Amino acid sequence: MSNLSKVSAKYYFIEGLKASGWCVLIQSVIILFQSLEASNHSMSGIEYAIENLLSLGIVFVILMNGVYSMYGPNWYDNIVLAMGGRRKDIFWGEIIKQFTIVFINSLLYIIVAIVSSNTGYVVNILSGIIFAIIAGPIGVIIGFTVGKFGRYVILGVVVIAGSFGYAMAMSSLGFFDFPPYSVALLGLVASILYIVLEIWVYKLYQRLMVI
Amino acid sequence: MGTLSGRNIVKKYGKDTVLKNVNIDIEEGKIYGLIGRNGAGKTTLLSILTAQNPATEGTVTLDGEPVWENADALSHICYSREINQVTIFGPNTLKVKEYLATARAFYANWDEEYAKELIEKFGIDTKKKISKLSKGMLSAVTIIVALASKADITIMDEPVAGLDVVAREQFYKLVIEEYANTGRTFIISTHIIEEAASLFEKVIIIDDGEIKYEDNTEDLLSRAYRVSGEVDAVNKAVEGFKIYHPESIGRNKVVTVLAEEPVDSFGNEVQVEPVPLQSLFYAMCVDEREGA
Amino acid sequence: MLDNLGEDKSIYLQIGEMIEDEILRDILHEEEQVPSTTELSKFYKINPATAAKGINLLVDKGILYKRRGIGMFVQKGAKEKIMEERRKSFMETFVKKIITEAKLIGVSRSELKKMIDSVE
Fold first, then answer.
1. B88, B97, B155: best mutation site toward chain A, by most A Cβ within 10 Å?
2. What 3-state class would DSSP assign to A111?
3. B123: number of Cβ within 10 Å
4. Which of A164, B33, B109, B225 could be disulfide-bonded to B203 (CB atoms 3.0-4.6 Å)?
5. ipTM of the complex, rounded to two decimals
6. Which pTM was predicted?
7. Domain total of chain B
8. Domain that holds residue B184
9. A99 and chain B in contact, CB less than 8 A
10. Are B85 and B158 found together in one domain?
C-alpha cells in the first residue's frame, strides 16, 4: 500500500474518531439532562435515560453518520483531493470513517446495555447498526447530488431521514418480539444493498473534482 | 522527477469547450508564469495537470507516467488554490489550523518550521475560521500551504489576488528565496503580470482555452517591439511582421510587433521601444491581426 | 519586480552592466567579491537564473572569475577591459545619438563642438 494510501486511511480514521467523540459528547449531555428530569417517571432518572439511549440512541447514530457523510463530497473530501489525495483512497477513507463512527457508538451502547442489565436491547442495537451503516453511502450519494440540487434537497433529506428515524424508533419498540434470525436476514439484505450502494459511490468518487 | 506534460487536453463542460487541444510541458527546476485573462482556462488547465479535475480528452504524465490517481506522481505535486469561504452547506467553518493540519498530513515533505515562520510573517491567526478570513489572509494561507509543502512541483493559482502591494512584494521575495534555496519547480498563474514578470524564467500565455505562446520570458521580450511614428512609415517598417493592437492618433501610429527573431532595425523613419510583458499581453488580448 | 532596473534591455544584461559600472566607478575593486546570484536575485526580485546569466556573461568576458566554494570575484584588469569595450561601442551608444538629436533640433556641428568644449 502506498504511503499516500496509509496517510489517507489514518486521516479518515482520526476524522471518524473525532466525529465519534462529538456523538458521545452530545449523547452524554442528553443523558445528563434526561436523568435530571426523573420526577415524572416510574423509574429512576438514570434508568430512564439509559432506556432512552438504548432504544433511540442508535437513531441518532444513523442520522449522524448520514449527515457527516453528506458533508464529504463537497467539503472535506474536496479538501483532501485538493491536497493530492487519490479518489480511491478517499473512497476507502470515507468507509473507514463511517465504520469508525458506527462501531464506536454501538460498542458503547452494547457495553451500557450489558452493564445496566438491559441486554434485551442488544438485538435492537444490532439492527440499528445495519441501518447506520447503510446511512453512510446514502449520505455520500446525497452529498454528491446536493451539488446539483442545492439546499432544498437537504431540507427534504432531513425530513425524510427524520421520519425514517422516527419510524425506526417506533418499530424498535416492537423489536423484542422478533426472533434473532430476522436480524440476520435483515443483515443479509442490507449487505447486498450496501455493496450496491458502495459501487455507486465508488463511481461517483471517480468523477470527483475540486470545486 | 521529470517533466510534467499535457497532451491534446480538451475540457468540456456540457457544450462549453473550456480547453481546446492544449499541449504543455513543464520542465523541472524552473519558475513558470501562466498568464491569461479571467476565464481563459488557467485554473481548469492546472486542475487537469494535477489530476484534480478529469480532462474530457487528452493525457497528463509526469516523467512519462500518467498522473491520474497515481500516488507516486501526486506526491511530487502541490496545487494550492484559494479555499472556498462558502460551501454548499453554508459558511466554511473549518479553522485555519485544521486546514493546515490536513496539509501537514498529506504533503510528505511538509516543513512545519517553515510553515510556522510564514504564519508569523503573514500575521495569521490560525484559530480563525476560514469563512471569517479577509481576502489577504485567505491568499496568505494559500501561499503558506504552497511554500511549506516543499513539493517538487508547486503550483499557485492567483496567489497575490488578495494581497496589498507590501504583501505582494513579500511574496515575490519568498518565492525567489525558496527557489534559490531549493530549485523547486514553480508554476504561478496570475493576471497581475508586470510585477511578477521578472520572476518567470518561462512564460505561458493562455487565451480562450488555447496556449498562445510558451517561451523563455527574455526570449519572448527580446523580439517584441513597440513601433511608433508617422502612419505610412510605420506601416512600411512593420510589413511582414505579426502585429498587435494598432492605434492611431492624428498621423501618428503605434503598433506592437512580435517577431519570430530579434530584429536589428526597423529603419530610421520610426521609433522603436521594448515592450514590457504586461503590455505585450494586453496588446495580444485586445487585438490580433496578422502582418501582411 | 524591478525597482531600479529598466525595461529597455534584457534583465541579465542590465545586471552585468550594473556590476561593470560599479567596477568603473571603483565601487567594486579588483579581487573584491561580488554579490552572489542569490543575493542579487533577492535584491532586485528577479529570477535567480536570470541573475546567474548576467554573472556568467561577465565571467565569459573575463570581468569576473569564480573561486570554488567562495563566490564570484572581480578579475584583475577588469576595469581596463570594460573601458576598452565601452570605448568601442561609445560611438554607437552615445555619439551617433547626440548627432541625430542635434540634427533633429537644428544644432549645427560647430555649435555642438562648442557645447562639448564648454563642459568641464
1. B88
2. helix
3. 10
4. B33
5. 0.87
6. 0.86
7. 2
8. 4-219
9. no
10. yes
